[in-house]
Amino acid sequence: xxxxxxxxxxxxxTETFASKLEEELSGSLFTETLLNQKQISKNRFSILMAFDxxxxxxxxxxGVPDFITSLEGAVSHRVAGNDHWMLKLxxxxxxxxxxxxxxxxxxxDTGTSLIYFDELDYKAMIAGICADLECFETPYEPNVxxxxxxxxxxxxxxxxxxxxxxxxxxxxxxVVSLVYPNGSHDCLIQLRxxxxx
Length: 197
Fold this sequence. Notes:
The protein is of the alpha+beta class and 197 residues long. 17% of the residues lie in helices and 28% in strands.
């Protein structure tokens, strides 16, 4: 495999697949290598994602982009545990129902559009979303669910509490509308059960 940049700023790789792969491929993580070679002054990076055609996405090594003059409105969280991508997950609400997660950590990933949960948390999330709705397991992938004749605006919001801050996931953030030629439509739930143990 070529071209993988291990962007974790952890100095001690943890026992995860990604960190083992990063360690196997390079021996040092990318930002750590840049810091050791004095190409950057701080062992950090930031990602700026563009949401319209007037912006450009960027990755900055060593800090934040020069044109960022204020972090007003930004929310910062301390990393939990030894893994750079891990945040402290306090609770989850589906509509007005609170789910106490069995796994108390959230792993962030800028490269996926799916939201992964531990098996027990996944079952609770699906049950919470599908309460009073006609949900079905998709025929093409086991344990993946869709909602029959679904209108996303009628689905509950999901609230995720990380540390003391709550983040809202509107239905459009966790379902994809499937519109069929006959005009009917279902919603594919973009939650998945983690396959790792």
